[in-house]
Amino acid sequence: MLLSARNLSMRFGNLLALNSVSFDVAEGEVFGIAGPNGAGKTTLFNVITGFYRGTGKILFGGGEIQGLQPHQICHRGIARTFQLPNIFASLTVYQNIRFGAHFGNPGSPTKDKEIEEILELTELEEKRDLRTRSIDLFAKKKTMLASAVATKPKLLLLDEPIGGLNPDEIDHFLNLIGRVRVELGVTFMIIEHLMEYLMELSDRLMILDFGEKICIGTPSTVARDKRVVEVYLGEGSA
User: Sheet holding 55-60: strands in order across?
Assistant: First the structure.
């Protein structure tokens, strides 16, 4: 397993946002995460990437990462994106990707060839010299993904990557995720509310509700789980 989480919990005052959540992510798979609003999905990402300090154990590549700072975890090989595009608006698309490459690999020379390859992979060549404040949402999401890919991650966490996109853009973005997975060997964890697409993309799914894991398995197994239907999918979805 590339990532193993054991008994992860996160409390904000009296609110238990994560309650003893355990799961494994295999190298090379797409591991989907879903659940109602407030279920703890983004909190889980924040704990894994060191933005929050929870309790429990997180092993990545066999080493403990719980308690490390976000930049240290990135350097170990975990990158992430956010629900809203988190990029440098005053920089160009190219400069954003270059920053990701430098941040993810400090002390190593940033290779222009690698950035060019990422621009080609994400089909951002024509927008390379545009400042990101002027590009559309789809291009911003691709720029955020490209910047994360430039850190050379083994595991990439995507938080609602297709939110706000139209159907054609969604199909394009899902194809892009597939290309990154196959061509670069990246493992994915993906939070998404659009279950139709998440089930199509994922090898396995985990459903959270009120900070607890209520089901984990293949998409078909999860879709038939009575508790998942009750708390999340709704009657008639199984």
Answer: 15-25, 3-12, 55-60, 63-64
Residue 224 vs residues 155, 216, 234: alpha-carbon distances, Å: 28, 11, 11
Rounded to 10 degrees, the C-alpha dihedral 112/115/116/121 comes to 160
The closest alpha carbon to 160, from 216, 86, 68, belongs to 86
Which SS3 state, helix, strand or coil, does residue 26 take? Answer: coil
**pTM of the predicted model, to two decimals?**
0.92
According to DSSP, residue 126 is labeled G
Q: Which two tokens stand for residue 177?
A: 């995720």
24-53 confidence digits (pLDDT tens): 999 999 999 999 988 999 999 999 999 999
Gap between the Cα atoms of 220 and 91, Å rounded: 43
Q: What pLDDT digit, counting tens, does each position of 170-204 carry?
A: 999 999 999 999 999 999 999 998 889 999 999 99
Exposed/middle/buried for residue 46 (C-beta within 10 Å: 0-12, 13-18, 19+): buried
Rounded to 5 degrees, what are φ and ψ at 60? -130, 120
